[in-house]
Amino acid sequence: MIDIRKFDSLGHADHGWLDARHHFSFANYHDPKRMGWGALRVWNDDAIAAQAGFPPHPHRDMEIITYVRSGAITHRDSMGNTGRTAAGDVQVMSAGTGVTHSEFNLEDEQTTLFQIWIMPDRAGGNPGWGARQFPQADRSGQFVTLASGIEGDDALPIRADARVAAATVNAGETVSYDLEAGRHAYLVAAKGRIRVNGEDADPRDGIALRDVGTIEVEAIDDAELVLVDSL
To answer: Does pTM top 0.70 for this prediction?
Structure first.
């Protein structure tokens, strides 16, 4: 099956400093039909104003992946970690038994990002954080794994049987991803119109897939893709 969730149908919250779209129920947005997709629980599409951000707040028992689309985000946490993640790069936080962190856009321009929450396979464990650069040139015409709890993947580690992957595709070209039986995929084009298994989608639409075997993505425009594969 394939279900295209148009960008305009997503949950929306505009706080002035933060303009957020919610692919799944989150905060004051609740839709019983959009509570998650497999182990994927949250996919927020955030635009954060310059010199603004999220003050310290707690998390536990969640894998939180931040994919920066433009600008940069600066992370600080109760474990003593500090890091700046720039456009195209990724940070991961395993909340485990509990962690407090802040995320601020300390740049002089707006920052846009996807924040993705995946439910861990097991509760508990010490919290952890990490970041890594993923040059866009390395993902040209192919999916590259950014974060994963699947054995053998070279990526930032998460504590879930799930994978976060990304690709850049030139207009007129196609990229594919094999989805194993029983698994769920959720795909978003950060930019560019795409055609997924024959269905057209616009930038930042959410595309939920399962029982498709192979996901074929044709770029109508130059496109930047982010995908989550989970049970």
So the answer is: yes
